[in-house]
Each structure stands twice: as C-alpha cells, then as structure tokens.
C-alpha cells in the first residue's frame, strides 16, 4: 500500500501494525488465531488456516457464531478471486401463511420458526475440497481439542456470554430451549471470565464433520439428529432440506474506488451496500478524515445505500434489479445528487432496469482468505440440538411476512444476509482481505475502513482503531465516545441526530491483512474493541 504511515496511530488502542512474511492470521479471539497459525506451520495453506480458525471460533467465541450458522468467503489464489456463498435457504415446508397461522405477524427472533439451513459446515468442506492442502479432519483438530478439553473464557467473550444468558433466561422458557442452557450454562449460569468451559457434544460433531468431509451434517447421522429434533418441536427444517443443500460459488462484485477494486459477495449479502456508498463518493475528493464534510457525505451516502438495499436486496433469483443495476454509474450519480448540505431522511431510489465472527488469513505463497460466519444475534435462535453443540441460527428473522416485499418469506428462498467478507485489489494484484463484523454495521465498517486506507493512508491498525460512526435509521447516527466532539456538534447542526455511546462493541469488530506486491511482506491490524489477535511468522 502506498503512502501509509506505519508509525502513526493517534487512536486509543495504540497497538502497532503487525508484520510477517510467511503467514498471518487475524481474528477476534487469540486461541482461534493461534489455531490457524499452527495449521500454517504444519504445512497448510491460507485456506486450511481459515477453516481451522473458523471452526475454532465456533468453540472459543460461541457468543457470535456456531456450527449451525452461515458463512461467506472470498479466496485469492493463483491470481484470481473466488467467492463462496454458504448461506442456507428457508425450509421447503415454511410459508408466510404457515407462520401467520402460528400467531405471528412478523418473523420471530427465537425458536425453530426462523431457523434456516445451516451453511457453515458446508463452507469448511467445500473450501477444503477445492483449495485446501491438509485433510479436513486434521484442520478441525484444534477446534476439537478445545471443545473436548476446554479453554478459559476471555474478557469480551465473558461479557457477551453473561448478557446472552440473562436475555435467554427471560425469553427462552419453553422445552425446545432447554438444551441451550445445558450446553452454554451447565452450572445454571454463564461461565465467568477465566473459567474453563468445554462441550463434548461440540467436539463429537466437529469430529464427524471432519471425518466425513461435512456429509454427516447434511446427509448422515448429524442431519438426522437435527431433523428429528426439529420435528419433535414442530419446526419446519427437515432432513430433506439438509440433504438438498449445497454451497454456491459466486462471482464477486466490485466497484473501482480511486484505482483500487473493492470486492464483496453479491446478494443475498449486504456487501453491495458498501459498494453503492463508495460508488456515490468516488467523484468527491476527501483530504482530511476528521472533517465535517467527510463525515457528512459518508453518512448521507451510507443511508441512501441502505435504503436501496433494504428495498431491493434479497435472494438474487427473486430480485427485480440486478447488482449491475444497483452499481451502475447512472444510479450512483442520481443518488449522489441527493446529498446536500443537511441530513436527509432516506428513501429508496429507482435503479435502471437490468452476531458474527470475521477472520483474515494469508500465507507465504500469496494465498489470502476473507472469511465470515455467524449464527446471527449472538447465540442465534436459542435452540441447540441435544448432545451435539449445534446451536441453530435464526437468520430467517430477516424475512418479511409481506407478500409484496422483495425479501418476502418463501420456501427454499435465501434471505437478505448481513454477514459480508471484503477484499481489496489494485492493478489485478491482491492487496488483501478486510472485514468488520456486526449486523448492519458491517457495510458501514467496510466503507470507513476502505476510506481510512485509500483516502487517508492509515496503516491497518490505525484504520481499525479510528473512531467509528453508525447510521441507525432516519437521521439518527450513533458515534463512539472518542469521536471528535466538535465534529459531532457540527453534524448535529446539519440535522443529524447524534448520540454518543460508550459501547464500543456495537461498532463492529474488524481485521485487516495487506500484502506488499513487491516483497510479499504482510501487514495486519486487529480489532481493539474485542479480544482481537494476530498470529504470524
């Protein structure tokens, strides 16, 4: 990366960018990052390391993801970028009418109704089969060891675990939730920070996934256990839904921003939101990061992009407008013209016709992976399949029960998806993977990190440490406590409804690895808002 000041990080964490040559793993939990590095040192490549880290995160950060969640990946190998969509569809037996007959006017958050087909295990198996070097069983072994033998709960993990337990204790009182408490609160409470936690069922499940290359989960013993439990509690998910599922290789989408290609997974993911916002801003010149003009235009572009995405983005097979429509220069120009001197209340435009963990890995051969997986809303649905450690996701909560809505619930349909991996290239060379997990903060974090890097030449750690803002709805914008106060006041005078919060976790948790194309040297930054770690050699 050109013009980066690697010594300058004026932001609170004061961590330094990490450098290495042979391999690097960056993620939100040190034990998982170490697991990925161990796989690299055993002869695995960046893809093997990503799988090992992802599987390990289901054990050592269960508050954000699990075996029963979804995943997406961007993989750079041999000069080409590949996209994997491992998000699962709604069950074939579900429908708007069926959900309403159960007394719901909107999709519920908890229980078996919002459960969609889990995609994460299929992502591990597919990545291993297509690009991995080591057997999947060996790659999953670090995660199996932690699940079987236990590990001490880290600080941020303990905080979110306690919060989830308190919330689930109030909301999840019926029989179908009992196994969540048996698995994640075995002593009648959340584990304390520094206390050991293990899950034999989780270990057994990971072992079966590794030994069968994922087949047990979709077409074997684990699939039957999931389906039987769903049937027992009147869920919609069946064995047939699991057996029919396959992850999908997709062509990543991009916009060119000041000579850099910024890449995302296409819909049903929301990565297109970041691209639409950057597309609106690419004609502007930003010379100073902490300026009123920069923040105002960023916020306005982002809210317009979200308005469009929430109206038009869903399962691509049902979308009335394509990614090409939404990323066209003519549409970007029309939306950019709406950005004025004061805050607007966003409305969607008319295009032309036509709870999460993130990790980044790189090896000494030039392979790089941007990987994200989630159960959604922390632990997900609150439903755990007995004896397996499989916490099922509640991704179906994002479906609409309005037949006219673009993201209306339908059998076998994929919903609008919040989790997104990002990747940066320049002149057809990899710059590297980046991501910021955290619900609807993710595309906002992506845009801010890209601009911090490209426009303001911040090094990877500084790009992550810089104070963030988050557009919530209408004109409401939440900013971090160390956001410049005079700029928060100036934004307020422009009509933005600014709120300052002490909760840094709501602003996402990011990782970055950049690669110097001339020397192959890797530089990485990790999130200061969580137990983030980079392991490298």
Automatic annotation (TrEMBL):
<keyword id="KW-0012">Acyltransferase</keyword>
<dbReference type="InterPro" id="IPR052896">
    <property type="entry name" value="GGT-like_enzyme"/>
</dbReference>
<dbReference type="InterPro" id="IPR043138">
    <property type="entry name" value="GGT_lsub"/>
</dbReference>
<keyword id="KW-0808">Transferase</keyword>
<dbReference type="Pfam" id="PF01019">
    <property type="entry name" value="G_glu_transpept"/>
</dbReference>
<dbReference type="InterPro" id="IPR029055">
    <property type="entry name" value="Ntn_hydrolases_N"/>
</dbReference>
<protein>
    <submittedName>
        <fullName>Gamma-glutamyltranspeptidase/glutathione hydrolase</fullName>
        <ecNumber>2.3.2.2</ecNumber>
        <ecNumber>3.4.19.13</ecNumber>
    </submittedName>
</protein>
<dbReference type="GO" id="GO:0103068">
    <property type="term" value="F:leukotriene C4 gamma-glutamyl transferase activity"/>
</dbReference>
<dbReference type="InterPro" id="IPR043137">
    <property type="entry name" value="GGT_ssub_C"/>
</dbReference>
<dbReference type="GO" id="GO:0036374">
    <property type="term" value="F:glutathione hydrolase activity"/>
</dbReference>
<keyword id="KW-0378">Hydrolase</keyword>
């Amino acid at each position: 990366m050109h013009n980066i000041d690697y010594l300058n990080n004026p932001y609170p964490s004061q961590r330094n960018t990490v450098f290495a040559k042979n391999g690097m793993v960056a993620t939100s939990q040190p034990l998982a990052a170490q697991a990925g590095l161990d796989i690299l040192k055993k002869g695995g490549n960046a893809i093997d390391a990503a799988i090992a880290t992802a599987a390990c995160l289901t054990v050592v950060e269960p508050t954000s993801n699990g075996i029963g969640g979804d995943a997406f990946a961007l993989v750079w190998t041999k000069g080409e970028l590949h996209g994997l969509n491992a998000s699962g569809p709604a069950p074939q037996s579900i429908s708007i009418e069926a959900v309403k007959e159960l007394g719901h006017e909107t999709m519920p958050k908890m229980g078996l109704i919002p459960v969609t087909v889990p995609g994460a295990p299929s992502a591990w198996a597919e990545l291993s089969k297509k690009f991995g070097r080591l057997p999947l069983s060996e790659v999953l072994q670090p995660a199996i060891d932690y699940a079987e033998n236990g590990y001490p709960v880290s600080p941020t993990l303990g905080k979110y675990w306690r919060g989830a337990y308190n919330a689930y204790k109030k909301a999840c009182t019926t029989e179908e939730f009992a196994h969540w408490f048996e698995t994640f609160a075995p002593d009648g409470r959340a584990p304390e920070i520094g206390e050991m936690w293990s899950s034999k069922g989780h270990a057994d499940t990971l072992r079966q996934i590794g030994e069968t290359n994922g087949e047990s989960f979709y077409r074997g013993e684990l699939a039957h256990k999931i389906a039987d439990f769903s049937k027992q509690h009147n869920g919609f998910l069946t064995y047939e839904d699991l057996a029919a599922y396959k992850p999908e290789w997709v062509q990543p989408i991009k916009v060119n921003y000041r000579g850099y290609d910024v890449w995302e997974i296409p819909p049903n993911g929301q990565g297109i939101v970041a691209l639409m916002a950057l597309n609106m801003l690419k004609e502007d010149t930003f010379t100073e990061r902490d300026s009123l003009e920069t923040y105002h235009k960023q916020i306005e572009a982002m809210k317009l992009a979200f308005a469009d995405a929430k109206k038009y983005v869903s399962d691509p097979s049902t979308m009335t407008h394509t990614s090409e429509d939404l990323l066209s220069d003519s549409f970007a120009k029309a939306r950019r013209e709406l950005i004025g001197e004061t805050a607007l209340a966003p409305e969607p435009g008319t295009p032309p016709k036509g709870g999460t963990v993130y990790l980044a890995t790189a090896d000494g051969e030039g392979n790089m992976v941007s990987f994200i997986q989630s159960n959604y809303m922390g632990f997900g649905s609150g439903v755990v399949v007995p004896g397996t450690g499989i916490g099922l996701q509640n991704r179906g909560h994002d479906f609409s029960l309005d037949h006219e809505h673009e993201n209306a619930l339908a059998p076998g349909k994929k919903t609008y998806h919040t989790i997104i991996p990002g990747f940066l290239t320049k002149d057809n060379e990899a710059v590297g993977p980046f991501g910021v997990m955290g619900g609807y903060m993710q595309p906002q974090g992506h845009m801010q990190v890209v601009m911090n890097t490209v426009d303001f030449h911040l090094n990877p750690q500084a790009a992550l440490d810089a104070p963030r803002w988050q557009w919530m709805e209408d004109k409401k914008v939440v900013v971090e406590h160390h956001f410049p106060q005079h700029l928060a006041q100036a934004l307020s005078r422009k009509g933005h409804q600014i709120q300052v919060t002490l909760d840094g976790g709501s602003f996402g948790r990011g990782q970055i690895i950049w690669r110097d194309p001339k020397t192959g040297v890797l530089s990485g930054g990790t999130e200061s808002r969580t137990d983030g770690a980079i392991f490298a050699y």
